[in-house]
Amino acid sequence: MTAPKSQAVDEPTDPDVDLRVPAQRQRSCRAQGPIVTVVALGGGIGASARYGASLLWPASAGAFPWTTLWINAVGCAVIGVFMVVITDVWAAHRLVRPFFGTGVLGGFTTFSTYAVDVQKLVDAGHPGTGLEYLAATLLAALAAVWLAVTVTCRVLAWRQG
Fold first, then answer.
1. Taking the CB of residue 8, how many other CB atoms lie within 10 A of it?
2. Cβ-contact 133, 121 below 8 angstroms
3. Residues 6+ apart with CB under 8 A from 79
4. Residue 71: how many CB atoms within 10 A of its CB?
5. Entry pTM
6. pLDDT-based confidence at 104, cuts 50/70/90?
7. d(CA 91, CA 55)
8. Residue 28: what pLDDT?
9. Rounded to whole angstroms, how far apart are CA atoms 35 and 94?
């Protein structure tokens, strides 16, 4: 068995930025400030929307957590539409993707709550429900993003042709 090749120490991560040059290193760090800010703002908005949905449609103990499943499926569908639109249709401002994609939708979708919900179901003596929820959320999320991308691409092709 051979050892994996190691990356050269002098090889840059971003070929446009040479971090050995102090001016480029400072510019690279300053450029991250607006991105971090919009991700944080978007995350607050998305998490607040998710929390609001959990208050409107709470899941009772031991029951199938439908609200979290639907939040994740809807969020994945919106991510699918959004990614097609900003890559194929709209030349968005550089902060739109981190704000909406990473921030809002990242804060809205909740795979950490999904994991906690599974654990709660198992701990409450409902391992079958936990396993169903585990599989259903994964399938729903993947199906939602695939369907959203497919439909969005077809609609865009139909509008152009």
1. 7
2. yes
3. 101, 105, 109, 145, 148
4. 23
5. 0.77
6. very high
7. 36
8. 59
9. 9
